[in-house]
Amino acid sequence: MNYERKVDVMDSLAGTQSFYEDADDSRRKRTRLIVAVVLIALALAAAWYAFSASKGGAAGADGAAASGEGAASIPSITVVVPGRQSVEATIATNGTIAARREMPVGVAGEGGEVVRVLVEPGQWVDAGQPLAIIDRSVQAQQAASLAASIRVAQADAKLAQAELERAEALVSRGFISKADMDRKRATRDAANARVRVAQAQYAEATARNDRLNIIAPAAGLVLTRDVEVGQIVGAGSGILFRMARGGEMEMLAEMAEADLQRVRVGTRATVNPVGTDVQIAGQVWQVAPVIDPNTRQGMVRIAVPYSKALRPGGFANAELVAGTAQAPMLPESAVQSGPEGNYVLIVDDKNLIQRRPVKVGTVTDDGVSIASGLTGNERVVVLAGAFLNVGDKVKPVVQKSSQ
């Protein structure tokens, strides 16, 4: 019986110990759970705080960037207000170079065989200078014969004069009648007349011989040569040489009817032969009094002095100064060109880019004059026009116009 009580007591102690062990395990589990929940809550709070901070910073950065981009998107553009300046009104034209006074030289005499040609194209000659020599062997003999006939006629005239003088000494003595005296005077007069005829014939032959040679009618420049040694020439041989009198040249320019009204005799011009950089000063010396009804153009003749760059038949450009006019003057960089023609970009009152078609006038070292399209009070873009579009907003920076 004591044994059974002891066993019951031990069983009771064992149950109590098991109860306390179970209670400790439950307490530890609750502690770990609470710690885990707290850690998760802290992690979530930290994550939320970090997300909020980054979002706020990004928003601030985006706002600052947007503000900076907005300021940088409006470029500063240099503009000029050209005003109006006095510029020379010029007319551009082109045409053909020719001799101002061309002299065709041919056979003036009876002609013959050419034995010498003395000049070549491009040479200068004086008035009366031989250009080609014609054979004159036959003509020379004829002239010699006529010269001899003069001497024969002079001898006959001298004899007739002597006989007349002897007869006059005898007529007072009655040895010679008055009729004989009249015949002797007539014989003397006829002999003198034959002398004059022979002299005239000789002079004629000499003149014909002198005309055999082909000579320059005036001083000038030989342009062409169309004769060779051995060639038989005559009155029908045509033009053998062409010359420019005094070497003077001219430009024959056809101009529109409207431009022709602005040109006067004496108008200054600058001629530029094609293929050269030579600028030759000249002036208009003749304006056509009529207009071609088919082309509606008229001829203007511009006199220019001799230059090696000028060759008759060649092509040349010219600028005629037709007075002065008031017009805006712009730098060349301000004028753009497109399929519709020339234009400029201007800045309006709202600082927006606008496009304005213009007509270009004179182009000089100082710039480009605008014949029409601008009043001179606009703000014209000087540079960077190719990078701007109509409607772009800009910040204009006014540059002083060169006067």
From TrEMBL:
The superkingdom of the source organism is: Bacteria
GO cellular component terms, alphabetically, are: efflux pump complex
Q: Where is the CusB-like beta-barrel domain?
A: 253-322
User: Is Transmembrane found in the keyword set?
Assistant: yes
Q: Name one GO molecular function term.
A: efflux transmembrane transporter activity
- Residues in a coiled coil are 150-208
Which residues belong to any copy of the Multidrug resistance protein MdtA-like C-terminal permuted SH3 domain? 329-382
Q: Where are the transmembrane segments?
A: 33-51
- Which species does this protein come from? Sphingopyxis italica
A Pfam family that the UniProt record links to this protein: Beta-barrel_RND_2
Q: What is this protein called?
A: RND family efflux transporter MFP subunit
Entry similarity comment: Belongs to the membrane fusion protein (MFP) (TC 8.A.1) family.
- Per its UniProt record, what NCBIfam families does this chain match? RND_mfp (TIGR01730)
Q: SUPFAM superfamilies of this UniProt entry? A: HlyD-like secretion proteins (SSF111369)
Entry keywords, A to Z: Coiled coil, Membrane, Transmembrane, Transmembrane helix
